[in-house]
Fold:
Amino acid sequence: MSAARRTGSRAGPDPRWTLAACVLASSLSFVEGSVLNVALPAIRASYGASAEQVQWVVNAYLLPLSALLLLGGALGDHYGRRRMLVGGTALFAAASLACALAPDLAWLLAGRAVQGVGAAMLLPNSLALLNAAYEGERRGRAVGIWAAAGAGSAAIAPLIGGWLVDNVGWPAIFYINLPLAAAAILLAVLFMTESHDAGAGRTDYAGALLATGGLGGLTYALTLWSAYGSWSRGAVIAAAAGVAMTAGFLWVEHRRGRAAMMPLDMFTGRCFAGLNLFTFLLYGAFGAAMLLIPYVLIAGGGYSPVQAGLALLPLPILIAVGSPPMGALAARMGPRLPLTIGPLVVAAGMLLARRIDVGSDYWIGAFPAIAVMAVGMAIAVAPLTSSVLGSVEEQHVGMASGFNSAVARTGGLIATALLGAVLGASGAALIGGFHAAMIAAAVAAALASGIALTMLGTVKMRKM
Structure:
C-alpha cells in the first residue's frame, strides 16, 4: 500500500504531474554530477586553485549529499515529502546562483556544500513521491522513466556544459539549474499531492551530525595526504577527529536501535553488508575514472570542454541501453554472475585507459576505455539495485536503497580525496599519475568482483 494511502491523503489529479516534477528536480543532481567534471580545469585556472582546492570543488558537494541522504528521506516521511522536495529544490537553486556569482573560491565551496544539502533533501523524496503516486506496474514504469531521464540528463549535460564553458564561461553551468528548479517547484506546488508517513520518520539529528563530521574529518585528512604526499599534523588531527566521530555515530545508531538513521541490524545479513562493500569499491573506482578522464583529456590532451563532453557521450548511452536487458537477464539467472563479471569488465576498461596519452587518438586511446567501462557498469547497475532491495526485509527496503545510494556517493567522495597528487601534476607527471590511478581503480573494481563472488551467496531479486 502506498504511503499516501497509509496516511489517508487523496490521490493527485494526475500522477504524471508528480512524475514531471520529480524528474525535473532530480535532474538537478544528475546534471550537476556530470557537468562539473568538464569545467574543473577552467575553474582551477580562474581561481589559481591548488590540487587540494580542486578536490574540494567536487567533495564540498558530495560530503553533505553522502551524509544527509538518509536524514533527508526521514524528514520527508515525517514532515511531508512534497515540502522537502520543494525546499530542497529551492535551496539547490539558491546555492547554484551563489556558485555562479562566487567572487572567490571560498564562496564557491560554500555554495557547493549548500547544493549538496539541497540534493540530499530532494533526491530521496522524489522517489518516495513516485512510490506514493503510483502502484503496481505503473509504479515500475514511472521509476523507469525517472531513471531514464536521469541517464539522458547525464548524457547531454557534459555537452551543454562544455559549450557553455567554451563560449560563455564556467559560471554558466550553474545558471542552467535555475529554470529546471523553477519548473519543478511550480509543478510541485500546483499539482502534487503531499505525502508523508509520520510513524516511519527517523529524525536522527545526532546521527546525521556525527556522520557528516566523521566523513568530513576523514575526507579532509585524505585530501591533505594525497595533495602533499605526507601525513602532516593537520592531517593526523583531522583523521583522528574523523575516526572518533565515526565511532560516535556507530554508538548513537546502536543506542537508537530501529529508530536510528542507519539501523545496524540491517548489517547482520552477510549479503547486505557485501552488497554495500561492493558498491563502495565499484563506485569509488568508477567515480575516480569519471573525474580524471575528462580532466586529463582537457589538461593533458588539449581537448576543449566540448570535445571532452563528446568523448564521454558513449558512457551514459551504453549504460542506459544496456541496463534494462541486463536487469531482465539477472532476474532469470540471479545477480551473482553479472555482479562478478561486471566489475571485471570495468577493471579492464580502466586498464585500457592507460592508452590515453598526450596526443593519443581518441578512437585508439579514450574510446575503448570509456566503452568497455560503460559495458561493465551496464552489466552491474540493474542487478545491484534489485539485489540491494532483495537483501533486506520489506520494511527496510526504502532505508536500504537510500543507504546504498549514500555508500555509492561516499565511494566517490573518498576516491576524489585520494587524487590530489594527480590533480596537482602537469605534463608527463599528470599522465603518469593518471595511469597509476587507473591501475589502482582497476584493482578496486576487481576487489568488488571478488566480494560478489564470495559474499553474496543466493540473494533474491526484488521487482519494482
